[in-house]
Structures are given as structure tokens and as C-alpha cells.
Amino acid sequence: MTSPHLQLVQLSRPATTPKVMVELSVDGHSVKVPEGSTILNACQQLGIEVPTLCWLETLKPVNVCRVCVVEVEGARVLVPSCSRTVEPGMKVKTRSDRVNLTRRLVLEMLASSVDLSTAPGMAEMLAEYDAKPERFGPDAETVAQPVKVDNDLYIRDYAKCVLCYKCVEACGEDHQNTFAIAVAGRGFHAHISTEFVVELPESACVYCGNCIAVCPTGALMSKREWELRQAGTWNESKQTATDTVCPFCGVGCTLTLHVQDGEIVKATSPLDNDITVGNLCIKGRFGWRHVQNGHASRGPSADPTAPRAPANH
Amino acid sequence: MDIKISDATPSPDERDAVDRRLGPPRASWDGAELRTARDMHVGFGGKEQRDRRHLLLPALQALQERIGWISEGGFNYVCERLSVPPAEAWGVATFYMMLSTQPRPRRVLHVCDDIACKVKGAKEVCRGLRTHHSPPLPHGVVGGHSEEPRGAHATLNEHHGAWTTSPCLGLCDVAPAGLLIEAGPVVVERSIGELSSEYAMGLLGGGAEPDDVLTQATTIGGIGALRLLKRIGKVDPTSLDDYKASGGYKALEKAFQLGPEGVIREVTEAKLLGRGGAAFPTGRKWEAVRTQPEKTRYIICNADESEPGTFKDRILLTGDPFALVEAMTIAAFAAGCSRGYFYIRGEYPLAAKRVQHAIDMARAAGLLGPTVMGTSFAFEIEVRRGAGAYICGEETAIFESIEGKRGEPRNKPPFPVQHGLFNKPTIMNNVETLANVLPIIIDGGAAAARIGTEQSAGTRLFCLSGHVAKPGVYEVPMGTTLGELMTLAGGVSGNGTLQCALLGGAAGSFVRADEMGLILTHEDTRAAGVSLGSGVVVAFDSSVDMKDILHRIAKFFRDESCGQCVPCRVGTVRQEEALHRIATKKTIGGVKGELALLEEIGLAMKDGSICGLGQTAYAAVESAIKRLNLYPV
Q1: Which of B51, B143, B406 sits opposite A191 (nearest CB)?
Q2: Does residue A105 sit in the same domain as residue A221?
Q3: Which pLDDT score, from 0 to 100, does residue B147 have?
Q4: How many whole angstroms separate alpha carbon B443 and alpha carbon B270?
Q5: Is the four-CA dihedral A286, A292, A293, A298 of positive or negative sign?
Q6: Block means of pLDDT (10 residues each) for chain B, length 633 residues?
Q7: What pLDDT shows up at residue A308?
Q8: How confident is the model at residue A17 (pLDDT cuts 50, 70, 90)?
Q9: Number of domains in chain A
């Protein structure tokens, strides 16, 4: 009993058997892609830029944000390029008037209801589509609400949530298989929630932080990053990223340490890494503070929030 | 996955309610109270248990029907029984408006305040209740953007009823209408017609159970011989013998002689188009499923009729349930489906009861089961009830709902005939579509195709309500004019002067009083820029404030959007806000500016939404602006 959109995501490993190629045209350019590819794949192969929000190469497409829509000749409505598989002879337009209008409106709708201030690339996207969210007026309903700080490792600021479903996918079916969060409610009041809105420590959350890794707007953020941003000292231009191997167990996950002012401020893993596909566990994601224990600028030498390495793992 | 469940435990009543729906637990692994010695050695559960996920909604409904709301203990027990992660089950429980996750009194009256009831006095009913009884129960769920703590509404007196407003209950012919539900060991569900605030308060005060208004005669009529309504009100809908005596099960007999290809040939020849709104050729749909390599196939009757102003399916479900069971059996035989579902909206208790009864009687008579009519054809039907979600009338949302998930539509393709329910080829037919099958098989497809017009064959059911003298369901050949239909329903009531009519439902369009010559076929309505939709005609006399009606339609879409895709989730809100700004004279850029904004929102919803809800959410507004010139600039 699997649903049709439950196909395994094509990861970075190359396919072993050569696939049947499908030829289609995108913006007048002819392109051949393997059968089963999406329109987005074809666009990427051609170097045609298509904006995305809810799509990520490591997650199965949920096609809900609708910024990646394109016009397919013969189709009654626009189609989401992230999930629509190519068909021979398909004629796709990625920047027609219809496409531009819907993309602009979608961006305006999001920007007028959600705080997008920490969403990477969003300002550029809004500018490119000439989006003017203020035209919905000062009384336009928003999802503004207080930030949820209920544990020491990460915060949830749902005023910044565009409901892209990525965190739910990463927590559940696609990656972690924990299912601590899901979409609840309906319509404009749909939101990400635990059961009975319990705080994370009461929920099934295992603090892998894989939801943070996929969040496109900064609604989910490690507590350290959030604190630095609050203090006004978070500065990405001053940060370096260094790849290393997580020391905690034998899996050997690639760990990217983000360092600012000689201090680790964040740990991530590359999406294109064969082993992690961007995922980590609580130790890899958050268990780096002991490195800085005793560091002059960090105050107390014992960090009570740092998880201990298990003795027999 | 590890299921982490809180310490809250179910009450004996809650445990009993769930066990009655799911059967008793097998071991402490799936929720039994006692841990036996055997449980320490043998494990139960796993995939087998997870495969029962599709029973999530029925189990939650069992709690709702028994207690009146879903408590944490009862909720936990359901999760344990079905091995569903609590967060996922919470997502489902908070999706459906008839399920409450906050404490509620057992007796709740749902008062329809939708368009057809609105013009018949629903406002006065609500105002009376507000003034003399209590404020309505809040809609929405805990933990939205306006968060309220758990149990915030627990102060309501358990022994007094509460009321809440409701979107269209499909009782427009007896407007203003309500639905009374009293939870308990045997749930009481009654459709109420001609509601007044005094009557409503009597009901809430715990007075005697009223009769279901639908057990009385409903107004039906038509032009020419009735094909779909011929048994309504004449043949006992609870008697299989009476049904057979009136020609019942003759069509199935003939279908077995024709064989699957023969049946599909007749239906194709009859040029039967789906009556749910999309008008897809039924024969082609059946053929597409019949020729699938996958042998496990399903058929679903879409009886989630929730389009405001529509109640034709209710009349068929309550008045001629055996016909629908027979028609579904024929469709299943033709396409090779082994299992069928009636997905009946939660607001139709009598319909669900009658269809269930018909299925039980048919099974007892060997007309369903492993050997239908003694042939080798095996077919079973199950009734599933909705729980208050217009979106679950969308075909792929029904799949999700039956599978025990939130009723969020899927992107198409893939299409249901390939990947439908449980990812198997599935036929989805509207109630009225199925009702058409019997006369087609009996009289032959060619005879059916001769009725109506070349492109729109057969007869069609129309639901007339609002300001007409005789609200009801009327069966007319395709090609009848709107004016003839109005005459059939006794002409304009109210103040006697027609202002306009809503054609096709909230997702349809308004037509002016001077457009009564409109010919009701697919081709003529398309040419006129409107649509037949679900056969709705709501008439408004000249006293009605159409801006108010339009605002209610906008609110309807805003409330009923599932929230999955951005254009619909936010667009329906921005559309309602713009209409509100015009109404309160706080426009941005003047009325002209607002209309331009509405047009763009509408285009984005039409072009960018996943499903038909968002794609049609601007239709009525657009027609009010362009056809009625409601906002002259």
C-alpha cells in the first residue's frame, strides 16, 4: 500500500543500467533526459533556472509551494516542474506570462503572510519577479506567532514557516522515520505540530536536527545560531566551512563545521554526501560544543547541553 | 518507527467505542490492558498492524460519536491500536471539522449558514441563538496561529447542548437547516429542516429527539419520464423485495449476459458523462481501469456531496439506495473491481444508514459477496463516512481520506485509473453517474443517447433552492432551459422578482435574471462561459444583498481549502480580504484596484492550485464582477 508519490528519490549514485531517453523541448531548446526524470531535471540539464521552495534533491517532491510551475503545451493549468515526469514531445515554457504571474502571486502571497527575513535567496527571488507583497494591505492576515523555545538544541519559529512539508518529510517517511511532527489543522490555519501541541521534549523528537537541515526559511534553527542572531553577532560572511568526519561512531558521516571568530557555530552535512544525504544524528548535529569547552570566550567550561558520547555504541 | 505515546489512558467508554469499530486488541502489543505471559514471547503488530492505517478515521469517528470529542486518552488508544504516530493522527484529527479535539457537550447542533439557508432565514436563527442561548462553538483547532491551551473550552456545561455554524448541509430544499448530533452509546444524528431559533433552542435544551426531516417526502419532479428518480418516494428504500418488484436487479442480470465489454459498450454508446462536475466520459473511465495490468482494482462512489446548494445525491442515497448498490456492482463487474466504497459525507447520517442497510440486505440475498448472483464474480462494498471536509469530494482527496490520511488532493498525473486508492487502479463515480447506469443497461445505450442533445446525452438532476416556490430535485432532459427549470419549481418566490441565480454551486457562476433562456447542456453553458457543475440552481430575489452572498462564498473557500498549496491556502484568504475591504469601503487603490487584484489572485489560483477547489475558487466571484456587474467602477 504505497501511494504513487512514494517513489524512491534518485540520489547521487549513478544508475547502473542505461535508461530510455525522452526528448522534449524547454523554452524552444531540445533536451534528452532519462525516462522518469522530472521537468525540473530537464531544466537543470539545460541550465534553465527554475525557482523552488518545497523541492529538495534528497526529498520526494510534494509539489505544494507552486513556485516551480511551468506551462506545458496542451495542459489546462500550469504544472509543477518538480514532480511532473517528462513525456516525449512535451513542449515546456518556463517564463511565459502565465508562469510569471503565478510565480509572482505565489511569492507575494507568501511574503505577505510569512516572515521571510531569514530565508536564503528570497529577497533576490522577490526582486526577480517584481513581487509587491504590500499590495494586499496592512491588514493582510499573517501567521505571526511567538517563537517556540522549548529545548536547548533548536528553536521553531513558525512565523517563518511557508508550510513546505520538508521538515515533516525529513522527520518521517523520507529520512528519520520518527514522525514527531506533522501538518495539522486546515486551510490558512494549517501548521506544523506535534500531537496536542506538546513541547518537543514530550514528543517523539530525537533531536537529529534533520528538519533544520531542510528548512528553506530559517523557521527551524539551531539554538546557537538563533542566539547569535538575537545578539546581532551572526555573520555568515565571516564564517568558514570545513569538512571533517564525525568522531562519534563508526558510520563516518561527513561533518561540515561552520566556524565564526574561531568558534564552531553550526554543524551540517553535505546534501550530496553518499552516506548522510545531508542527515546527521543528535551527536553529529549538536555534539560539538565540548570542542570549545574551556574556550576563553565561551564562559563556563562545562556545557550541560552537550550530549555525552555513548559508552558502547 | 517508535511510537511515543503520552501517559493519558482511555476511559472504559472510549476503549469500548474503539474496540467496537476495530475489534478487540490481540495482545498488549496493540493496546490490550493486560500483558499476558504469551505477550512476553510472541510479538504482534508490525506491518500487519500498520496496514490497518485506513481505519484511523473510522476509529476517531467512533470516539467522536461516543463521547462527543476526542480526548487525549482515547486518541492515544487509537494510535496504539493502529500503530499510527500520534503527530500523524493529530494531523488527521484536526483536519476534519466534525471531529473535535477540544471538550464539547454531547449534544451539538450544526446550523447551516451557507448561501441557500442564508436567504431563507439562517441569519435570524444564528442571531437568536447568539442572543438567547450561547455563542457558537469556535471552529478551528488547538495550536494554529492563534494558539489556545488544551481544554480551553472545557467550561461548557456537559448537560447543555452547544451549537456551531456549518457550511452547506445539503438540506437546501428544507432551508434553513441544521444537523443535530448527540454522542452516546448509540449516537443520535438527525437532519433538521425549517429551523427557527425557538426550535433550535428546544433541541439544545435536551428536548425529545426530533424526527429526521428526510424520512418525510421530499419534492421531486421533472420533465418527461423520470429515469433516475422514478422510485423516489414510491418504493420503500429499506426493502429489497420492493426494489426487486419495481425492476431492481434486472440490470445486473442483463449485465452478466452482456459481459464486461458489452456493459462498457452500452455505457459508452449512451455517451454518459460524469455528473460530479468534470463531465468525463464514464465508459472511457471504466475501460481504462478494465485494461490495467494490475488486477487489484477498486471502485468508489463519490457521495461526499458538499458543493453548496447540492442535494441531489442525498435524495438518491436516501430514496433509492439499492439502485446505487446494484449500479456499483455492475460497474465493478465491467471493470473487474473486487471492492467498492461508498464515501458518504458525514453530514448525511440517514444516507449512510440506508446505503449500509441496502448493502447488508444485498449481501444476505447473495447479490454481493464471493458469488454475486451465483456467478464467479466476487464483490464487496463498504461504507466510509466523511467527517466534515468539502475537499474530500475531490477524487484524490477521497483516496487519502479512505487511506487514513489528511484529505489533501494529489497532483495529477498519475491518474486514478492507474494509481488510485491504495495505489491501485480505481474508478471514481458520482452518485448520479451511477444512477444513470441502470436505465442505460435496461433500455440500451442507444436509447439513452437519444435523450438530450448530441453532445449532452441523457437526463440531468438539478437542485433548485433559494427563492423558488417548490425547492427540490428535478430531473430534466439535457437541453432544458433555465427558465423552464424555474417554472418547474414553481417560479420565483420571496418578493417575486428574480435578481440572479447561482448555477453550478459555489464553484459555479452567477447568471442574470435576463439569462433564463440559457440552455442547460455542457456545450451551451460552456459557450456562455458558465458551467453545469453539480446541477445547482440557487435563486435570489431582488431583496438579497449579493455582496453578502459573495462574501459567504469567499469565506466558504477560505474555510474549506485544505491548506496544502500556496495559491489556494493564501489566495482564498486574500480574496476574502479584498471583498471585505470593498464592503467596508477601505479599498486599496479604489474598487478598480481591488478588482484588478482579485483578478490576479483568481488567475494564480486557477492556474497554480493543485486541485479543482483552488482552480474554481474565483469562478463565482469572477461571474459576480463580470456578469452581474456587482461592483461597478
Answers
A1: B143
A2: no
A3: 46
A4: 10
A5: negative
A6: 90 98 92 90 85 97 97 97 96 97 93 97 96 86 49 49 95 96 94 94 80 82 95 96 98 98 98 93 98 97 96 96 98 98 97 98 98 97 98 97 98 95 98 98 97 96 97 97 97 97 96 97 96 96 97 97 98 98 95 97 98 97 97 91
A7: 47
A8: low
A9: 2
Q: CATH no. for residue A202?
A: 2.20.25.90
Range of the domain at A281: 154-298
Residue A295 has pLDDT above 90, yes or no: no
**A55 lies in the same domain as A132:** yes
Nearest CB to B6; choose among A1, A177, A202: A202
Q: Which residues contact B525 (CB under 8 A, 6 or more apart)?
A: B503, B518, B519, B531, B532
Last residue in a domain, options A89, A112, A138: A138
CA angle B316, B319, B324 (to 5 degrees): 50
Dist CA B48 CA B389 (whole Å): 29
Output the pLDDT for position B44.
Answer: 80
If contacts are CB pairs under 8 Å, which of residues 90-109 in chain A contact chain B? 98, 101-102, 105-106, 109
One domain, residues A95 and A210: no
**A73 shares a domain with A37:** yes
Q: A1, B423 in Cβ contact below 8 A?
A: yes
For cell 462574501, name the residue. B551
Say yes or no: A120 and A242 in one domain.
no
Segment A198-217 shows an average pLDDT of: 97
Compute the distance between CA of residue A127 and CA of residue A139 in angstroms, rounded to an integer.
Answer: 23
Which of B102-132 are b and which e, b meaning 16 or more Cβ less than 10 Å from the residue's Cβ? bbbbbbbbbbbbbbbbbbbbbeebbebbeee
What Rg value do the Cα atoms of chain B yield, rounded?
A: 24
Note whether residue A4 is domain-resident: no
What secondary structure does DSSP assign to B184-253, as a single string?
Answer: SSS-EEEEE-S--HHHHHHHHTT-PPPPPGGGS---EEESSS-SSSTTTTTS-TT-HHHHHHTTTTHHHH
The verdict on a CB contact (< 8 Å) between B419 and A4 is yes
In a domain, A88, yes or no: yes
Q: B32 vs chain A: nearest CA distance in angstroms? A: 22
Do the chains contact at B563 and A203, CB–CB below 8 Å? no
Contact B607 A98 (CB under 8 A): yes
Domain boundary among the residues A89, A110, A138 is at A138
Q: List the single best residue of A86, A196, A198, A217 to mutate versus B (max B Cβ within 10 A).
A: A196
Question: Could you tell me the CATH number of the domain that includes residue A36?
Answer: 3.10.20.740
Rounded to the nearest 5°, which phi and psi values hold at A95?
-135, 40
Inside any domain, residue A143: no
| Grid cell locating B571 | 489566495
CA of residue B384 relative to chain centroid, distance = 11
Beta carbons of A106 and B577 less than 8 Å apart: no
Whether residue A245 lies inside any domain: the answer is yes
pLDDT band at A16 (very low <50, low <70, confident <90, very high): low
A138 touches chain B (CB under 8 A): no
Q: B143-172 burial by CB neighbour count: b if 16+ within 10 A, else e?
A: bbbebeeeeebeeeeeeebbbbbbbbbbbb
Question: Least CB-CB distance to A191: which of B145, B399, B604?
Answer: B145
Same domain, A85 and A58: yes
Rounded Cα distance, B478 and B461, in Å: 9
Which residue in B95, B51, B46, B93 sits closest to B423, CA to CA? B51
pLDDT exceeds cutoff 70 at A301: no
**Domains of chain B: residue spans and CATH:** 12-93 (no CATH), 107-139+154-213 (3.40.30.10), 240-450 (3.40.50.11540), 459-541 (3.10.20.600), 546-626 (1.20.1440.230)
What is the model's pTM?
A: 0.94
ipTM: 0.94
**Measured in whole angstroms, how far is the alpha carbon of residue B396 from the centre of its chain?**
14
In this predicted model, what pLDDT tens digit does every residue of A138-173 receive, in sequence order?
999 999 999 999 999 999 999 999 999 999 999 999
